[in-house]
Amino acid sequence: MKILFDVLNIYYIPQYYPIWLELQKRGHECSFVVYSKKNDETQLKEMLSQLSIDFTWVFDQDAAKDYYLIQKPDWIFFGNEFPYLNEIHQASKTVQLGHGIGPKPSYYNKSNTPMTVRFVEGDLRIKKLKEMYPNDTFIQTGFSKLDPIFNNMEKGLNLEELGLDPKKKTILYAPTFNPTSIGCFPNNWPKEFSEYNILVKVHSLTLSRERYKKDQDRITAWAKYSNVYVAAIKEFSLVPFLKTADILVSEASSTLFEFAALNKPVVICDFYDLKWSYKGLFKYRFKKRFGESVIYDQLGAHASKFKDLKNIIKQELHFPSKYENSRHEYNRDHVGPTDGNASQRIADYLEKEL
């Protein structure tokens, strides 16, 4: 088979990569199609070359459509909606594969334009999607991004090589870019948490866009502390960080749900800043994007302000099983099978249906 992966954004790659590996192993022809309008060409070229992934540059979705119509692959993977499906479906079949497992309404709404098949994670998710779109095809597979952890292929980070202390517990701080809690963390907060290693893995948009210069300066200040390691943009995959850390701190990132899927404690920051595009008259955008879901309430401990964070982290590390039942319930409903074989199930389906 000839299979293309539509890489509109760099953060799709960790979701695609285990599937790409499985398909390559089975002898199929696979390639990534990367958007130069949305990604840094130099950085992405280096990343994909290191992974030995074949790729082609296109400028935008119009150019991608033209490329797909010329190439006529058997299957095309998309991480979101695509506006030219009627034309694409004349020559190719399509896959929709979400890159996150959070509660955002957009997770469900992206199926408004149906693809040939959508691969889904947990029991509750597939039930809801089938109710919303009864004429479309949904196949439960699990969450491919976490396959390398569940099947023990991912070894994690070497803390010593990063200049950190392997004897210390490790905090992963992984804020999203909007809303974000970065501005609520003081420049010297790593000093207050000196008994821990701190891994800082922020959203790629935070590091790459000029409008987030204040956040970038704050992160640079944190990086000067000996107990801190800040991931660079080229470290696009969160998976090694999830494997290594003992506890996660975030606010509205889908990372919370990925970490909880590993049955490790999370701390949810109820303090964060909204960008201007979500404030005032535009607050409806925030509600539209994040919905009214209360799933965050059940997932782990909450910190209402920064000064509460240290004690909460200490408690959660001391009693890591406190929210274990909620995490198991979430896994069943939203993550699905955690046997490390999601990518195999996806590859099996593609081969069978073709």
TrEMBL record:
Signal peptide, first to last residue: none
Gene3D superfamilies the record matches: 3.40.50.12580
Stored Pfam families: Glyphos_transf
Listed InterPro entries: Glycerophosphate_synth (IPR007554), TagF_C (IPR043148), Teichoic_Acid_Biosynth (IPR051612)
GO MF term set: CDP-glycerol glycerophosphotransferase activity
A GO cellular component entry from the record: membrane
Protein name: CDP-glycerol--poly(Glycerophosphate) glycerophosphotransferase
Originating species: Labilibaculum filiforme
